[in-house]
Amino acid sequence: MKSSSTSYVGLLRGINVGKAKRVPMAELKALLEALGYTDVKTLLNSGNVVFRGPKGKAADAARRIEAALPDAFGFSAKLTVLDAAQWAELLADNTLLDQMTDPSRFLVTVWRNATARTAVEKLAAQDWAPELFTTGRHAGYLSCTEGILASKAAMALDKAVRDEVTSRNWATVLKIGAMLDTHKS
């Protein structure tokens, strides 16, 4: 018998980076549970959440959770959601693994929509040497050889797409993948 639920990854953008937009992870977990999601787990203090919900479009879960954020926290924030199969594809699509020397300097930039995807793909097509930049089915992969804050490609990416993408370093992406492994899809 097929399950009517699946595992999802939610990535909030721009929270807990300053005094504004504070979202305690215990409260985020409680919000998702109040919305009917189950097996909710958070990672770090930056809006990474893994949860189970009805099978369907990940974007539907994102819209539903985003709509609840202002009442729960007093501000809005963008949320990108991928299902477990999409997250597996995101992991598999990283063709830069052999060149990666420091996972904390390697960004995975997940887009929210087709417009952001097109913008990321255009940026990735440019020459950013010595940085490496490529794309997959759900994200861009950026090796920031001089560090994330010094990355010209990361700055251009932020300027071009802003809230329509969210980025995590490779170490965090792998931790989220390990959390998903504890969910039965």
Low-confidence segments, given as residue ranges, are none
Number of domains: 2
**What is the N-to-C succession of helices and strands?**
EHEEHEHEHEEHEH
Quote the beta fraction: 15-25%
Radius of gyration: 16 Å
* Mean pLDDT value: 90
Oligomeric status of the shown chains?
single chain
Q: Quickly count the helices.
A: 6
Strand order of the largest sheet: 2-3-1-4
**CATH topology grouping of the largest domain:** Alpha-Beta Plaits
CATH architecture of the largest domain: 2-Layer Sandwich
The CATH class assignment of the largest domain is: Alpha Beta
Largest sheet: 4 strands, antiparallel
Q: What structural category do the secondary elements indicate? A: alpha+beta
Shape: globular
How much helix is in the residues?
25-40%
What is the CA-CA span between the terminal residues? 13 Å
Find the CATH superfamily of the largest domain. Answer: bacterial protein sp0830 like
According to DSSP, the number of beta strands is 8
Quick take:
The protein is of the alpha+beta class and 185 residues long.
Textual characterization of the structure:
The protein is of the alpha+beta class. The chain folds into 2 domains: 82 residues, 2-Layer Sandwich (Alpha-Beta Plaits); 88 residues, Alpha-Beta Plaits (2-Layer Sandwich), CATH 3.30.70.1260. It contains 6 helices and 8 strands. A 4-stranded antiparallel sheet has the order 2-3-1-4, sandwiched between helices. It has a 4-stranded antiparallel sheet with strand order 6-7-5-8. A hairpin with a 4-residue loop joins β2 and β3. The radius of gyration is 16 Å and the shape is globular. The two termini are 13 Å apart.
